[in-house]
What does this fold into?
Amino acid sequence: MSRQAPTLEDVAREAGVSRATVSRVVNGVRNVDPAIQESVRQAISRTGYAPNQAARSLVTRRTETVALVVSGAGDVSEEERNAFAARVVADPFFGRVVSGVVGQLRPRSMHPVLMFAETDEARQEVVTYLRQGSADGALVVSTHADDPLPALLAAAGLPAVLFARPARPVALSYVDLAHRDGGRLAAEHLLGRGCRRIVTVSGPLAVTASQERLAGFRDTMARHGHAYVPLVQGGFTVDSGVAAMTELLAEHPDVDGVFAANDLMAQGICQVLREHGRRVPHDVAVVGFDDSSVAVTCRPPLTTVRQPVEDMAAAMARLLAEHIGGVRTEPTSIIFDPELVVRESA
Amino acid sequence: MSRQAPTLEDVAREAGVSRATVSRVVNGVRNVDPAIQESVRQAISRTGYAPNQAARSLVTRRTETVALVVSGAGDVSEEERNAFAARVVADPFFGRVVSGVVGQLRPRSMHPVLMFAETDEARQEVVTYLRQGSADGALVVSTHADDPLPALLAAAGLPAVLFARPARPVALSYVDLAHRDGGRLAAEHLLGRGCRRIVTVSGPLAVTASQERLAGFRDTMARHGHAYVPLVQGGFTVDSGVAAMTELLAEHPDVDGVFAANDLMAQGICQVLREHGRRVPHDVAVVGFDDSSVAVTCRPPLTTVRQPVEDMAAAMARLLAEHIGGVRTEPTSIIFDPELVVRESA
DNA sequence: CTGAAAGCGCTAACAG
DNA sequence: CTGTTAGCGCTTTCAG
It folds into this structure.
């Protein structure tokens, strides 16, 4: 570490060839004599050469890095900034995104840098980061429909792919789920098993996905004569599920079915139900959404609407790689279909 | 986006000064006439200039990026690689690490790139990544005592800080918890509330922290005359907690106290207990470890040994920044003290 | 306090 | 198939 790192020049000298030739074998460009290739390779391991990424990026204009950003909407106090990051990462949803993204990035030798953009300043930093060429593009997951980041990215002409369709049209590719169909699936299942006094806990209505899940659910209920379904808005956390169900149970003690807009809330709902002496699914059936890890962990295991997050995240990474590589120039969208997974809660 | 991005040269021309001067104001180096400074600033915003990070890194030899790597030990099949990432990120522990790290990195304008090193090949890639200068240093969290990555990093003379003391001495800084004290705290609490038929579910014994927590627990139990404490080894997951407790309950139906080496397992334990008609803490008291998010979410909320993960992660980031900056040259260690958090489970 | 000039290490034409 | 030659955009002595 004390000695200066060897450069192409050093390897070239060691192998008795030119820098260009060494560069070619390092980058696997053919047109290099097998014999020379071999001697270069030996010189490389003899010198312990590792190409300097900065020098390389300077000319290729690629960093092989993408920003994985979780963006909010409004501004958040300085103190809440860490809380934002903590909350995001703690959500099993995020883990699935990372898993799907990494799976696609790795074989391409690309790496994700984590960024949280919960304030306007932080969002500006993301844009700057990309404009500086610190990353080749961005994968963005918005926690709010009004997230201004997608528009900023598009305006700057930066390669980016979104998780979920932006509320306001933006010329960026995105992947999404047919949330309405998911809501429909949940309603049909609850109705199908005979529930008649059904309530629902939606996600934050500032999130488009929440609205859509709810709309699909309500439409289906209405089609079956259920004009009115009691609703409480939750925040996609276990706690909010607990609070929402506590409220709903007080007003509708005879409830026999619940649709929760995500599994975390469904878990909180099951807890409240149990604590109030209701058996799940015997007395009250509960359907969640996502099919995240807690769906399996929860007691009872959750019947839920599966959202193939890993596949969606993988698709995002693939699309971004295509945009970066220039293979794809026009924005496109990929919509995934939800699927009902029946376990024990309903 | 179509037009070439402006360079220092462009700004210099626009402001009628030299590149050097522009560079100085961009980097906030004083010794620049206020008037000129102002005109340069205007030229910058007029041109929409953003410094090229690659060019900058090439000369400063800094990327303002650090690798945040989660490393395992043995090799894992190709198919399990994504599962590894998924499992890691899904664990609330990881979220706390990220939160603590980001909190320190952000004010330093540094960014974490996520890497999973569960195979020898992946570990080699981490080393290469750093040697290429793609990141200035590494923050490593090992999931196994035999993790070879720390030694590789040290041998390559790369700046790195570890979460937890490495099993085999390595000249690298690390932060850790006084795990033994944590185990002692748990034992004392269980004993103090009158439990006499106590069992324990440890973490994987291949993890040093698990061994230490267990040792501290057993020592204290022994000091109080409990020569033998039934033990089942778990895997730090809810499922493993369920399995372990099912086994223990079958052999020791009269159990009245359980120490779980982490909260996730404690949650599984509570589920099993409840399903077998045992009240927590009335019939059986349960003490967890970590004080992670599930400790609060769990029913009943867990009495647990708090590990200040966010603070520990923040300390890691701080140490790494010092090593990178050359402010600190010798490896050091920071040991945090655990703390008992009493809630309802014991 | 400012400018000129020398690279940082690598890739990519372009010759040969 | 290989070598020569330009830069990529920026920081940083070193003069002035």
Q: What stands out?
A: The longest helix of chain B spans residues 309-325. Chain B has a mean pLDDT of 93. The radius of gyration of chain B is 25 Å.
